[in-house]
Prior knowledge:
This protein is mainly α.
Amino acid sequence: MKIPRIxxxxxxxxxxxxxxxxxxxxxxxxxxxxxxxxxxxxxxYLRYTPIxxxxxxxxxxxxxxxxxxxxxxxxxxxxxLFELDPGSARLESxxxxxxxxxFRLLTEEPFERSKQQRSDIVIARxxxxxxxxxxxxxxxxxxxxxxxxxxxxGRPEVLRTRFDVFERNIRPLxxxxxxxxxxxxxxxxxxxxxxxxxxxxxxxxxxMTRWVIALRRHMYARWFFFPIFNWxxxxxxxxxxxxxxxxxxxxVSMYMRLRRSKLSSIGRDYFSRTVAxxxxxxxxxxxxxxxxxxxxxxxxxxxxxTHLRIIESSLGGRRDEIERVVVDHxxxxxxxxxxxxxxxNLLSLNLERAVDSSEALQSIPLPNAVLRPVVTGxxxxxxxxxxxxxxxxxxxxxxxxxxxxxxxxxxxxIANSPALEAGxxxxxxxxxxxIDHMRETVSVKKWALPETEQERRRQLMEATPxxxxxxxxxxxxxxSSKPGAS
Length: 486
């Protein structure tokens, strides 16, 4: 029986490599997150999974603190002696040694390396309350030594109470304390870079491979464009703790590459569709709020007449230019041969019709065959002479002044015409009506509509992309559209 051979093309191999790199990036980011949160979570690990602390403490150079460890051990021995033989001489010696360790705890700041200085304050306050002094008084060496002895002395019932206070309030803080060494550069010891080094090496190999492939395929105009466009990957490759956060962007870029792949189902799975669904909801809600705010402000500006003031201020300073343009157009109309010829033809046609329609001309006692040529000829002569006179006087001072007066009258008529106010009011009503419809459309939560309604609205917008048809929003009025109509 022959085993079928599986053909692995380049696309499939690239998909496998991308999947492998995604898992490598996930593991690396998990380790980085664990390292960043280890000191904060170490008390939890010590309590519930102490093996984690035993394994990872050497990575950060963490060792038990000599003073706090000795204090814990001495307190345990002293408590055992107290419970077995409260009046023995060994107990008195153990109490003096315990008092000396407590004095050192108050004066030597053993929590400095572990960044738990708050524990110093809590322990000092606890001892001050039990011995009846203030916390500030314990800053003096003499007072601290005396109160440390006072704390571990007294009648058996008092000493039993002090052991209970120690177990309840002081011991948990001492257990969480540790000592951390400095390296030769003066920084706190951390060997995490040895764990991160294989991942960093693999990421460098992957980055350089992609760079070489991009150069061979001529994907960029210059060779140095690749690291510029992939700056987030390059920053994540810098072996410095502050730049490790950029590896999160590497995971995002790998996800987008897998999503664009035809062989991968990433981007079409349930999780990706759920994330896309909720992200679309958030995007729609934010964009709708912004659009409604803009439409409301636009409507307020229109009602306030801001647009008219803007037009007036914009055109008022250019009135002379507008009049000059009007003069040039009038001059062009009066000197253009085609326009004058069309005007003569129109007047000749009107003169011929005037003979038949004018009662004043019909009352003249002349035959129609004589009256018509006379009226037409005289009208054409008057028109020709008038146009020639106007054309000849355009370049004179009187003609130029007359044209300026005509242009000024035209501009004044346009700016102060009663029809302009009515047209402006009508325009405002139309624009406000359109804005109201746009606000109604934007206010609809499209993500909450049924899929059939969403598809119908999408098709309607494609058919009329400038607006939603108003007839679609109304109830049908004709008889044929009523239920039961045949």
